Amino acid sequence: MTPARMAQLHRAAFLRERPWSAEEFSELAKNRFVRCFDHASGFALTRTLAGESELLTLAVDPGHQGKGIGQQLLKNWLDSLPTDAETAFLEVASDNQPAINLYQKFKFIEAGRRAAYYSRSNGTKADAIVMRRAVTLGHGGVSHGKMPESG
Ligand SMILES: CC(=O)SCCNC(=O)CCNC(=O)[C@H](O)C(C)(C)COP(=O)(O)OP(=O)(O)OC[C@H]1O[C@@H](n2cnc3c(N)ncnc32)[C@H](O)[C@@H]1OP(=O)(O)O
Question: What ipTM was assigned to the predicted interfaces of this complex?
Answer without folding.
Answer: 0.98
